[in-house]
């Protein structure tokens, strides 16, 4: 991890992801208290900043970039369990150690909060504690959805669900996405690992979706969603 430094109150005030993150419950007049306990860090692509099994000493609020979350398998391989977008709060461990690892997919910025200092904040801001509980509940729902994705859905349904999830990532609560261009910084291999598929299957499925008029595949990591409705029907198992 590089580029660590304290966070200024004006940074928190103007942070573009604050409305979607746990920090949104802190009133503007109290934002300086939050800034005092936050440390901004820049994590380069491919660098890990949460180690599975390590002491859970810090929380991390993702402010830009994409984070790959993974679990270690007994044979040494890694299973990708999710991708965290700006606004996600990481490290809500129920024990004293982290239950997953985290690695930057592209250049990632995070605000790091020590567990000790965050506990002090919770005493003064009950709304923050409730917001963190909501975040923990969202993580549980995401884990359940991942089990459904891997256990019951077909390859096409999995890819459709993934694209819809990425389309809605970072949107304000309650706002529906209406298609448009997606930037997917993760590799096809990462997507395949997350979905429990092979790279070839992911590529064939994207080609099929393009032929069906659901998406356009651009250069690099760009994908344009042409029909949200078709993706939703497919993801629900009705395609």
Query: End-to-end span in angstroms?
Result: 44 Å
Silhouette: globular
Find the structural class using helix and strand composition.
Answer: alpha+beta
Number of helices: 8
Beta strand %: 15-25%
The pLDDT mean sits at 85
Number of strands: 12
- CATH superfamily membership of the largest domain: Jelly Rolls
Low-confidence stretches: none
Spatial ordering of strands, largest sheet: 1-2-9-4-7
- CATH first level of the largest domain: which class? Mainly Beta
Please provide the ordered H/E string of secondary-structure elements. EHHEEEEEEEEHHHEHHEEH
User: What is the CATH architecture annotation of the largest domain?
Assistant: Sandwich
Describe this structure in words.
Helix content is 39%, strand content 24%. Strand 5 and strand 6 (78-84) form a beta hairpin. It has 239 residues and is α+β, with helices and mostly antiparallel strands. A 5-stranded antiparallel β-sheet has the order 1-2-9-4-7. It has a 4-stranded antiparallel β-sheet with strand order 3-8-5-6. It has 2 domains: 2-132, Jelly Rolls (Sandwich), CATH 2.60.120.10; 153-235, Arc Repressor Mutant, subunit A (Orthogonal Bundle), CATH 1.10.10.
Question: What descriptive keywords fit this protein?
Answer:
single chain, 239 residues, alpha+beta, Jelly Rolls, Arc Repressor Mutant, subunit A, 2 domains, five-stranded antiparallel beta sheet, four-stranded antiparallel beta sheet, 8 helices, 12 strands, 39% helix
In short:
This protein folds into two domains: about 1-130, Jelly Rolls; about 155-235, Winged helix-like DNA-binding domain superfamily/Winged helix DNA-binding domain (Arc Repressor Mutant, subunit A, Orthogonal Bundle). Helix content is about 40%, strand content about 25%.
């Amino acid at each position: 991890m590089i580029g660590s430094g304290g966070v200024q109150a004006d940074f928190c005030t103007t942070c573009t992801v604050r409305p979607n993150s746990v920090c949104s419950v802190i009133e503007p007049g109290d934002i300086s208290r939050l800034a005092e306990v936050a440390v901004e860090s820049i994590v380069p692509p491919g660098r890990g900043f949460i180690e599975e099994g390590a002491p859970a000493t810090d929380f991390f609020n993702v402010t830009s970039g994409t984070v790959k979350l993974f679990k270690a398998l007994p044979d040494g391989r890694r299973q990708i369990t999710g991708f965290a977008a700006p606004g996600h709060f990481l490290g809500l461990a129920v024990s004293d150690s982290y239950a997953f690892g985290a690695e930057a997919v592209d250049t990632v910025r995070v605000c790091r909060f020590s567990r000790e200092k965050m506990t002090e904040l919770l005493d003064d801001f009950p709304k923050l504690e409730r917001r963190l509980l909501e975040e923990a509940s969202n993580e549980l729902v995401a884990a359940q959805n991942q089990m459904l994705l891997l256990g019951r859905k077909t390859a096409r349904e999995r890819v459709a669900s993934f694209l819809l999830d990425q389309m809605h990532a970072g949107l304000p609560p309650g706002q529906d996405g209406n298609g448009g261009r997606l930037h997917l910084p993760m590799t096809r291999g990462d997507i395949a690992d997350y979905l429990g598929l092979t790279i070839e299957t992911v590529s064939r499925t994207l080609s099929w979706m393009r032929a069906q008029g659901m998406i356009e595949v651009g250069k690099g990591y760009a994908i344009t969603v042409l029909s949200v409705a078709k993706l939703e029907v497919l993801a629900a198992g009705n395609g």
